[in-house]
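Why do we care about 3D structure at all? Because function follows from shape, and shape follows, mostly, from sequence. That is the central idea of this module. The next example makes it concrete: a single protein chain, its amino acid sequence, and then its structure expressed as tokens.
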Amino acid sequence: MSNQELLKEIITLLGTESNIESVANCMTRLRVKVKNPALIQKEALQKLDGVMGIVEDDTFQIIVGPGKAQKLMDLFKASYNIPTSTVDEDWKANKEKVQSKNKKSSFKQGLRTIGEIFIPLLPAIIAAGIFNGLAGLVTNLQNTGSLPLSETWNMIRLVLSLMGGAFLSYFTIFTGVSAARVFGATEALGGMVGAMTVMTQIDDISKLIGLFNEDSPLNSILRNGKGGVIGVIVGVYILSKIEKAVRKKVPDVLDLMLTPMITLFITAALLLVIIMPVTGILSDWLVNGLELLVNSTNPIISIISGYVLSALFLPMVLLGLHHGLIPIYAVQLQATGGVSLFPVLAMAGAGQVGAAIAIYIKAKKVKNMRLMKVISGALPAGFLGIGEPLIYGVTLPLGKPFITAGLGAGFGGAYVMLQKVMSTAWGPSGLTAIPLMQPNSMLNYFIGLVVAYIFGFIITAVIIKDSEVANI
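And the structure:
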């Protein structure tokens, strides 16, 4: 089925074009706001070839996988006269609904907002990570004599590091622009806030106001890069509030000149005196905590922390709490040049794969052909790090396998943490994440996946009874 045909089927099963109020997309799914949810043919959508699963949340979400979600969205914009939006605009449209919910829901929405900042940056994060990893691989091979120290290989290494550094060296600027889009501020001003945090003038200003530690610059209250992307996000949020307040007071004829000047001046003052020092403390705590886990000389600590983090990750995803981890990835990447948390959490999807294989064997034994078909369709995506089809189509509906998959994934996480596996970026997990690992971590990451596959399979095969699979 072509993408055009798939989109046409999806729209029909959503209750036709007249039932659709707006459509947005993220990396793996279409997010549809409908007028009458009762008109949605959910079972037919679930079975539709090309649809990996559905999720009912603030919007009706149709999981179609990475790449395809954007292609379907492009076709939708070109072929249908229905409002489209970014995820952020979709959130704004539901503002009253969100505010009427309890504090826990507001907290979850805040975490989703963090995701909305970083999701558009994900293609560049992945590409930059792969380029930097390849540049590191060439360097290692040259150092060991496997590759010659020739001008050709030096040029290849430099071009790879150029492309990787083009994003990661200016990560705070990209974050500032994206955060401004989400918070409703002028995007260029958001980029300026991100740029200010990494400029060398910060150190000179810090020395003048007595916040710089000459003996230990990294321990300064204020220094270049202090607070990282967390400081940028907080700074741009405050910028958005200030810009809106200033714009209300400034005459229209002077708005273009005075509003950005006044907004940036106030924001810069707050950034230097409050935002960067305070978020810097938080960032330092996060990095130091991760360093204690990753660099711990006690293998018991590494094993326990890796196991717990991997085992609990997918429940965090279901609760919407995983978006809160993205700034931690970014802070660690900026501070250490690598991410230890992502490879550990990536094992969660591998546990689902192992559990699904065990269920498939049981389904075959009891002749549950429908369940076998669902699993066989979802497993290839699971191996490639797209976990939604297995989660929402297999393990979560069955209940127990979702738990046993997490228990199995923990063993992979324990191994990865024990081996101190580090990635150069974050993105899809599974086998597709191997190029994102640092060169000396690729093999151990793969072994971790295999460990998670095996234990997810064993624990599920032992705990889940044939009768439980036969009745699904």
